[in-house]
């Protein structure tokens, strides 16, 4: 008897037509993403914390400069102002600040600085308005801003000699006014070496400085504010009175204080023009430290401390006003 071996029967080998066989399932759909369990993936080893933050290295020159040329000298002045020539503690130097000569020097310096700051603020604001909001060509603004950056740092002996050659008794402008128009400038009582002569000289570097620092505030006046005012029926005068000037007031006052501080500490320009005949505080201080007759360094240190106090108050007020002005520039 012959045994015929057959393969085991399976559904896949059944005699079913190809067209009716079910096709194998395909899995083309993306697999759902499984949540990553924390700790299942190896984490890089944490970097050891450096004992020194190297980011501070970039500002190290600034701190060194401030310590050597700002903080150190101020501490030295304060220490010397409370000492007598023998090195003993005394308050005599500050009591001497109330003498008529020194009080007159402070009064003259304050009045001159206020006058120069007023002239610079008004003239600089008008010039800034003309070149920023006046519709002048773009190249005029670029040229004037470049000039302002240079002129605001032009002071001292070169500035004094430049004004002597221009507005002195035989200066170019004085001679032209006399010969071409018959106008004697010095016949009116004007003198370059007087109070208002110094104020006009200060104007040369005060005006460009005002333009430089008021420009961002003028640029901060948004066109939407003017359009909204016009839609509400406001005139040009009402827009400036109720919108623009209230926004610009902190910036203008801050610029005025900065100009005041800039004029208050000026020494070389006034000394080159008038010598020691115009007794502002910097000249009186110079006489106390370097003079042969009024030599009293400790009194000079007290004068310097008084100037530092005035400048500190001025700069503090300026920072407060600037913080208020920056609210509208955001």
Automatic annotation (TrEMBL):
It is a multi-pass membrane protein. Signal peptide: none annotated. GO terms for biological process: transmembrane transport. One of its GO terms (cellular component) is plasma membrane. Pfam families: BPD_transp_1. PROSITE patterns: ABC_TM1. The chain crosses the membrane at residues 56-78, 112-136, 156-177, 189-218, 238-261, 268-289, 301-321. This is ABC transporter permease subunit.
